[in-house]
């Protein structure tokens, strides 16, 4: 067996798995690197399926990493949001090409799942793993793993946003939202949001952002229009469309640099259920 080639054949899949588990690029890359180190020290003669071995190892490394990350996030300033993956004109970063398929709204919703619940859901739904593999990865019975996946589905369905909206639907909703905000049209803006909508901005102490989740159309629209008025006065910025995690989004540039990324997810009625505003410079592309 060519152990290097066996690992490289799975690298993109492992990166996607770890990104879905952790919600940030650096953490995913570290988890994949740890998987590589364990792979190189393994007894390869005992490995019947390199892909299954690597996925099982990466899953457990990511579970441990997620537990540590959640402890750190307890002291995070303001809400924590998953790091976006932007698709540029040249395409997404090569190692993250598969990870790009995971929507930001789904990554955010998966934060409410337990570590093993999240792993079971990802292995089953994103990688079509059998319950025998999930059982081996998590050290639980297949029946217990089925329960984990079923419970994850239920909790995600209760989170609010849809995860199957078309790009055209999201693009249209973003366009109408920005047009109403720019016109400071309070009533039209209100109608765009679902009654139980949430708006989350992540500044990570390094950029101005709301320190808590905004809930409901009235609060969301009042804050967003106030922000729009302030930024309009400041000037010196432009907005442009982009694709973030396979969904339409808007980039705001200030003096040529990306200052924020905004995207959203609709509910079943086509209203905004979830609004995402990333402002933490550590999670924004440099270009």
Oligomer: single chain
Number of domains: 2
Shape: elongated
Whole-angstrom Rg: 20 Å
Strand line-up across the major sheet: 1-4-5-6-7-2-3
Which stretches are poorly predicted, pLDDT < 50 over at least 5 residues? none
CATH fold label of the largest domain: Butyryl-CoA Dehydrogenase, subunit A, domain 3
Mean pLDDT: 93
Number of helices: 10
Which percent bin holds the helix content? 40-55%
Looking at the overall shape, the CATH architecture of the largest domain is Up-down Bundle
Q: Would you kindly provide a written description of the structure presented here, covering whatever features stand out?
A:
The chain has ten helices and seven strands. By secondary structure, the protein is an alpha+beta fold. It has two domains: 3-157, Up-down Bundle (Butyryl-CoA Dehydrogenase, subunit A, domain 3), CATH 1.20.140; 167-283, Nuclear Transport Factor 2, Chain: A (Roll). The protein has a seven-stranded mixed beta sheet. A hairpin with a 2-residue loop joins strand 4 (237-244) and strand 5. Helix 3 (50-73) crosses helix 6. The radius of gyration is 20 Å and the shape is elongated. 40% of the residues are buried.
Descriptive terms for the model:
single chain; 287 residues; Butyryl-CoA Dehydrogenase, subunit A, domain 3; Nuclear Transport Factor 2, Chain: A
């Amino acid at each position: 067996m060519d152990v290097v080639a066996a690992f490289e054949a799975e690298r993109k899949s492992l990166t996607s798995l770890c990104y879905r588990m952790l919600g940030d690029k650096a953490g995913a890359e570290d988890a994949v690197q740890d998987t590589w180190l364990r792979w190189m020290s393994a007894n390869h003669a005992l490995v019947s399926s390199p892909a299954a071995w690597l996925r099982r190892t990466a899953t457990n490394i990511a579970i441990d990493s997620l537990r540590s990350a959640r402890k750190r996030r307890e002291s995070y300033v303001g809400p924590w949001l998953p790091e976006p993956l932007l698709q540029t004109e040249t395409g997404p970063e090569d190692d993250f090409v598969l990870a790009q398929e995971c929507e930001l709204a789904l990554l955010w919703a998966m934060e409410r799942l337990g570590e093993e619940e999240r792993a079971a859901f990802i292995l089953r739904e994103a990688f079509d793993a059998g319950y025998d593999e999930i059982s081996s990865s998590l050290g639980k019975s297949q029946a217990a793993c089925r329960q984990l996946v079923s419970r994850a589905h239920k909790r995600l369905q209760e989170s609010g946003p849809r995860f199957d909206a078309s790009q055209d639907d999201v693009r249209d909703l973003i366009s109408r939202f920005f047009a109403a905000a720019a016109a400071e049209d309070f009533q039209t803006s209100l109608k765009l949001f679902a009654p139980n909508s949430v708006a989350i901005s992540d500044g990570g102490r390094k950029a101005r952002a709301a320190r808590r989740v905004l809930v409901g159309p009235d609060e969301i629209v009042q804050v967003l229009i106030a922000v729009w008025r302030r930024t309009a006065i400041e000037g010196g910025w432009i907005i442009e469309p982009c694709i973030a995690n396979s969904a339409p989004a808007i980039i705001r540039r200030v003096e040529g640099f990306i200052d924020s990324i905004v995207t959203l997810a609709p509910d079943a009625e086509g209203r905004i259920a979830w609004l995402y505003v990333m402002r933490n410079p550590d999670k924004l592309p440099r270009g």
